Amino acid sequence: xxxxxxxxxxxxxxxxxxxxxxxxxxxxxxxxxxxxxxxxxxxxxxxxxxxxxxxxxxxxxxxxxxxxxxxxxxxxxxxxxxxxxxxxxxxxxxxxxxxxxxxxxxxxxxxxxxxxxxxxxxxxxxxxxxxxxxxxxxxxxxxxxxxxxxxxxxxxxxxxxxxxxxxxxxxxxxxxxxxxxxxxxxxxxxxxxxxxxxxxxxxxxxxxxxxxxxxxxxxxxxxxxxxxxxxxxxxxxxxxxxxxxxxxxxxxxxxxxxxxxxxxxxxxxxxxxxxxxxxxxxxxxxxxxxxxxxxxxxxxxxxxxxxxxxxxxxxxxxxxxxxxxxxxxxxxxxxxxxxxxxxxxxxxxxxxxxxxxxxxxxxxxxxxxxxxxxxxxxxxxxxxxxxxxxxxxxxxxxxxxxxxxxxxxxxxxxxxxxxxxxxxxxxxxxxxxxxxxxxxxxxxxxxxxxxxxxxxxxxxxxxxxxxxxxxxxxxxxxxxxxxxxxxxxxxxxxxxxxxxxxxxxxxxxxxxxxxxxxxxxxxxxxxxxxxxxxxxxxxxxxxxxxxxxxxxxxxx
Length: 556
Fold this sequence. Notes:
26% of the residues lie in helices and 12% in strands.
C-alpha cells in the first residue's frame, strides 16, 4: 500500500470551526467532533491525532491518513543576553522563512508575529523592507507562529526561555491548557454551557489546569504589512478570538500598519475590538514619501482621516509610532507638527530611536536629541512614551527582522580568495562552527567550479609551477620550467639534478648514508664501520649523475 504524501493531505491548521466541520464531515458526520478537534489544536496545542484520546481509534487512524496539522519548523533560535527576548527563524512548507519574536515580561509575554515574507512598502530604515516582497502568509502560517511561541513561552512566571530551551510543537506534544472561563479575556462565554462546537451529552475534551499557561499579548509588528494581507490577517484574528480555541480578547491584540486608508476603515467595521498602531514616522507628505516609498499613493491627510474613523468606531485610543532618525525627522518643527496631529484624535505617542541594522544608511539620534524632542512634544501631546527597544543585540528589535542576510547579524571572518591571498590581503571568513546546523550563506567571491579553483591555486603558487605553495616562483623561459612542463616525475627529477650540477651545487641527497639517510654518519651503536676504518667509497657510476656513496662491508 502506497503511503500518502503528507504535503498532499489537507492542512487543518488555519480553518475556522465551520470550515473544519465541512472538511471532516465525510469521515465524522457528528457536529461535535469538529469542536473537539478545534479545541485540541488551539486550546490545548496538540497536533498529533494519536494523542487526541477522546476520539475513537478508527477516527484517529482515518485522520492520520487523510489530514495533517503542519506548523512552521524551527530552524534557529537566539536569545538576548541583556533582555528577556528570544528570536526564532521558522521555515515554511515552500522553504520560505520568517522570523518571530518572544518578549518576556514579569506577568505576561508578548508575541511579535509576521504576516508576510518580506514587505512591499520598502522603507529604507527597515531591514524587512529591504528584502522586497515575496508572498503573503496563510492564516495557518500566522496561527502557527502563535502556537509555536505559546509552546516556547513556558509556565506562568517563567518569562521567555533562554536559547535552546524552547519546546517546538513537533518535538513536544504535551497539552498546553487554556485558562478557565473566569480568567479569560472579556466578552467570552462560560465554558460550562455547551458551545457552538458541542452539544448536550457529547464527549468533551478534558481541559487541563490553567496554571500551565502564561498570559500573552499578540502584536502584528513582525515582517510585512498586516493590512496588505488583509483577508488572511483578519481570519487568523477571528480564530484567535474564538472561545473554544486560543480565546484571546481584542484588547490583547494590536495590529500595526504604515497606513492604508481603505483597509483601516474596513478593519474598523469588522468589530474585532483590536488595537491599531500607526507607523507615522513623518509629519509631511514630502518626508513620508521618502521614508515610506510605497505609501506615496496614500496622502497623509487620508491616512489620518481613516485613523480618526477607526478611533471613533472602536472606542479605543490609537498608538502613533514615531521612529526618530538623526537629521531627518527629529527637528523642533517635526515635534510641533506631531503634537498637532496627536491633539486631533484620541491617541498616545510611542517614540522609538532608530535601531541600526545591516544595509540601513540612516543613524539614530543622540540621547540629548531624543530628550530635547520629548521635551518639545510632551507639554502639547496627550501621552508620550519613550519606548526602549528590546532585543537589539540579537537583531530582534523594531525594524530589524530580516531572513535573507544569512549571518550578517553575527559578522565573522571569511576565507580569502586566491586573488586576495596573492595580494597579501585576508578577507572575512564564514565560521561554520559559529552556528551549528546553519548553512554558510556567505562565500568568498562568486561561485567557481573545481577547475577554476585549482587554476587559481596554481596561479597563486606560480605560473606553470607545481601546486605546492612553498616552492619559489620560476621565471618563465628558464630551462627548469621547460624541462618541468609536461613531463613525468622521473624526467623532472633528472632535469633538476642536471641543473644543480650545472650550477655547481651538490645534488639533493649527496653526502647521505645509504640506509640511515643521515649526513653525519651512522647512528650510535650500529655495526656499520665508519669511514677511515677499512672502508673505501666506491662510485656507483654517473648513471644518474649522483655522488659516490659508501658500500657496506660485512662485519668480521
